[in-house]
Amino acid sequence: MLNLLTGALLLSLLHAAIPNHWAPVLAVARAERWPLRRAVGVTMVAGAAHVLSTVLLGLGLGLLGWRLSARFSQFSGVAAPALLVVIGLVYAFSGAGHSHPDVGAGPVLVRPRGRVVLGLAATMFLAPCLEIQTFFLAAGTRGPLALALLMTTYLVVSIGAMSALVAVAYTGLRRFNLTSLARYERRFTGAVLVLVGVAGFFVDW
């Protein structure tokens, strides 16, 4: 289980760092002249919507993994790690990373705050991250408690990292350049999936 949690932690940090996850909120916050506290708060709301849609998909896959492992004992020890390796290779060689609708592009008109927040949250909800889903499936083979632990890790790390990045960028401390990270996102994601899958063949989930 430790390798799954480690992989989920790495993927959560990686995907949260992709500018498409937090830059739109930052752009709207600056256009609307929100204070830092409000910008971070809206980031948490949008991030929660994004995580919610991802977790809802993951819950279904996790329950599927639980049922498969109950019927087929080899699924947990062989099929789940193999699936991670295969999907990891597919991601690594499938080109550029995934993207979300760039709601922060172009001029931002000043609108009622509630509509702006709702629009950001809806946009993020409709664009769940699919890369983490294989981890949910594998965690499901360990039972509901393991699945809940993985989902909690993903939720806390993703929302926390997105909020921290908005706070840092908002205050002007932008000595790091994460834009180029999106170019190699699928390779990094694939590498994490493959490493966790390979580890699953040698150590217990």
From TrEMBL:
<feature type="transmembrane region" description="Helical">
    <location>
        <begin position="43"/>
        <end position="66"/>
    </location>
</feature>
<protein>
    <recommendedName>
        <fullName>Urease accessory protein UreH-like transmembrane domain-containing protein</fullName>
    </recommendedName>
</protein>
<feature type="transmembrane region" description="Helical">
    <location>
        <begin position="116"/>
        <end position="138"/>
    </location>
</feature>
<keyword id="KW-0812">Transmembrane</keyword>
<feature type="transmembrane region" description="Helical">
    <location>
        <begin position="78"/>
        <end position="96"/>
    </location>
</feature>
<keyword id="KW-1133">Transmembrane helix</keyword>
<feature type="transmembrane region" description="Helical">
    <location>
        <begin position="188"/>
        <end position="204"/>
    </location>
</feature>
<keyword id="KW-0472">Membrane</keyword>
<feature type="transmembrane region" description="Helical">
    <location>
        <begin position="145"/>
        <end position="168"/>
    </location>
</feature>
